[in-house]
Model the fold of this input.
Amino acid sequence: MKNPVRNAFVPALLTFLLASSAVWAQTPASSATTSSPDGRAAAHAQKHQDIVEQRIDELHAELKITNQQSQQWDAFAQTMRDNAKAADQAFHDRAQKLPSMSADDSMKSYAALAQLHSENMQKLSTAFSALYATMSDDQKKTADALYRNQHPSGNQHRSQHKRAPGGGTAAAPAAASN
Done:
């Protein structure tokens, strides 16, 4: 049986990772019209945190999380935040070192990113499983549709903007366009 959580988050997180690496790769080393590299990094990290928070809020509303589910929800949401922060930091670190990396170092660095993605997905899957176990049948139906990238009404869900994975940036259901 396919893991619907993995099927939804993998494309979302890969998209986030690729988008993040493209942003870091395109960031000029220095520019008179931009702030310091540390300032750009902080702004970039804050933007990703904001996107993750927006997605957490959207999921909370879409899944109609109850007070009784708050402990599991909070753990899931924190995992999304932690995963996004770890992925963003890893891409930032790689981007800083990329100009001086050998091909071998670059390949190892990319492998480390893939490993981080895998670890983050395991964490997110575990946190989501605990939350999913507390859901009502209606919530599970909504979650199942979201993780198939469909709107609960049966229509394909089309994101109006890019969203970060937990993890995705880190990643989240119905966020394959991150």
Observations:
- The first helix runs from residue 4 to 26.
- The radius of gyration is 17 Å.
